[in-house]
Amino acid sequence: MCMVCIAFASWVLKTANPQVGDAWKAVLLANVSALSAIQYLRRYVRVEAATGDTEQPEP
Predict the structure, then answer these.
(1) 31 contacts 6 by C-beta, under 8 angstroms
(2) How large is the C-alpha radius of gyration of the chain?
(3) What superkingdom heads the lineage (predicted)?
(4) What are 16-52's pLDDT values in tens digits?
(5) At how many degrees (to 10) do helices 2-15 and 23-54 cross?
(6) What are the residue ranges spanned by the domains of the chain?
(7) What gap in Å lies between CA 14 and CA 51, rounded to an integer?
(8) Which residues contact 3 (CB under 8 A, 6 or more apart)?
């Protein structure tokens, strides 16, 4: 999910034409996708850290 959002944001920025007046829409879409991916990663890391603390690996 996260990698898809980052890849989509990268693709949008590469294919956007900066001379067109609507380029801000592509940039906005890319930023929203990137922020969504970052938020998802932070939530995933938090959940993994919470579940990892309760389980102790046995030697």
Answers:
(1) no
(2) 17
(3) Eukaryota
(4) 777 777 777 777 887 888 888 888 888 888 877 777 6
(5) 160
(6) 2-14+21-48
(7) 38
(8) 37
